[in-house]
Amino acid sequence: MPEIHTSTGQFEFPLYLAPMAGFSDMAFRSLCKREGADMLVSEFVMANAVLAAGENSRIWDTLAFLPEQRPYGVQLFGAEPSLMAEAARKLADRLVPDFIDINCGCPAPKIVDQNAGSALLKDLPLMASVARAVVRAVPELPVTVKMRSGWDQAHIVAPEAARMLEREGVAAIAVHGRTRMQGYGGDADWDLIAEVARAVRIPVIGNGAVNGAYSIERAKASGVSGLMVGRAALGKPWIFRQLKAVMAGAPCPPEPDATLKLHTMLDYARALLGSGEDIRKIRPKLKPFTEGIAGARKLRAQMDALSSLPDLENYVTNLLHDSPEKSENK
Ligand SMILES: Cc1cc2nc3c(=O)[nH]c(=O)nc-3n(C[C@H](O)[C@H](O)[C@H](O)COP(=O)(O)O)c2cc1C
Questions:
Q1: For residues 320 and 322, what is the distance between their CA atoms, to the nearest angstrom?
Q2: Ligand 1 mean position to 189 CA, how many Å?
Q3: Buried (b) or exposed (e) across 76-96, using 16+ Cβ within 10 A?
Q4: Each residue of 203-241: pLDDT tens digit?
Q5: Of 32, 90, 226, 322, whose Cβ has the fewest other Cβ atoms within 10 Å?
Q6: Which helix H or strand E contains 296, and what residues bound it?
Q7: Predicted confidence (pLDDT) at residue 329 exceeds the cutoff of 90
Q8: In 10 A of CB 139, how many CB atoms?
């Protein structure tokens, strides 16, 4: 069975950037890699969409990556084992990623209604069939699964599902310690994540509310092999550098100042616009970079009026030039 580069050599305790549809695009993945993320995963793509994709489909832009961004995994969702297998094969041939990840966590009704994402937590035999089909379809690649703890608090299945997936040849499992019904609110259940880590021999990656130095202690205590960071990385790719420092026993480096934050945002905007994105659509990706800057709420409102890259560049220049005191971090 191909091994995932997790606790097995390349990284002692890998930090993953969580897949986040609409946010973890190639430019953002790049930023996070530069700041210390070890493992990157694409935004999720639907098996049918991969199968239907022709040469010039936008999907290939969504999934593109640079050699220096390896190890890189592509995340697939779907509920039909044969389609998932075919899509995984097509991705493996065309992109040669380092692993294929199966989404068993998405709570969105439009995904769940197709029996995909977190709906697979309600049908473990189907989850097993999907995993088996994908594992067989790409024998040269590790197949991983990302799942939630269960559908709801009365149906926590992650430990059982993990044992089952291990038997099917899955190479690693990321556990988001919230149920489907919890959505994204509240804390994650790290006791449950620890239970999953004890239940299997393959690496278990802990995910959910990883947002500061204390997360490292909590993760180490839970026995996981690595950590996956989601929302705490939005607008703050340097969280990986901070977590790495804490892991090495050093003090947590401070947040960058407002100038560096805004310049990082500008570089990111340039990369996105250079790849053909529309400034109106990328505002939600840029706004998190203003977090912690004095007057951030007003800044975010003003950003809604910007309609081109030069507008954004002038805006940042004027902001930093005219009133540097205003832009200092709180
Ligand atoms: C905007 C957004 C998009 C997401 N998209 C995906 C996705 O495509 N695939 C996936 O497995 N999880 C997705 N997630 C879930 C995250 O990967 C992660 O499991 C979740 O946010 C919990 O981690 P956190 O508490 O560190 O944010 C998404 C989350 C957010 C907030």
A1: 6
A2: 16
A3: bbbbbbebbbbbbbebbeebe
A4: 999 999 998 888 889 998 999 999 999 999 999 999 999
A5: 322
A6: helix 296-303
A7: no
A8: 11
Q: At what angle do helices 279-286 and 258-274 cross, to 10 degrees?
A: 150
Q: What residue spans define the domains of the chain?
A: 15-247, 258-322
- Pairing mode, if any, of strands 15-17 and 226-229? parallel
Helical (H) or strand (E) element with 226: strand 226-229
Distance 20 CA to ligand 1 centre (A): 5
Pocket of ligand 1 (CB under 6 A): 18-23, 43-44, 75, 103, 105-106, 146, 176, 184, 207-210, 229-232
Nearest atom (ligand 1) to Cα of 148? 19
Residue 79 CA, ligand 1 centroid: distance in Å: 19
Residue 328 has pLDDT above 80, yes or no: no
Type of residue found at 20: M
88 CB-near residues (< 8 Å, 6+ apart): 76, 100, 134, 137, 138, 143
Tokens matching residue 275: 């790849």
Mutation probe of ligand 1 site: the residue of 16, 20, 99, 285 with most atoms within 8 A of C-beta: 20
Phi-psi region of 230 (alpha: psi -120 to 50; beta: other; left: phi over 0): alpha
Q: What is the pLDDT of residues 63-116, one digit of tens each?
A: 999 999 999 999 999 999 999 999 999 999 999 999 999 999 999 999 999 999
User: Pairing relation of β-strands 99-104 and 143-150?
Assistant: parallel
Selection from 16, 11, 63 nearest residue 39 by Cα: 16
Residue 88 is encoded by which pair of tokens?
Answer: 């995984």
Amino acid at 34: R
Residue 260 has pLDDT above 90, yes or no: yes
> How far apart, in Å, do the first and last CA atoms of the chain sit?
50
pTM for the model: 0.94
Query: CA dist 149 to 25, 175, 194, Å?
Result: 26, 7, 11
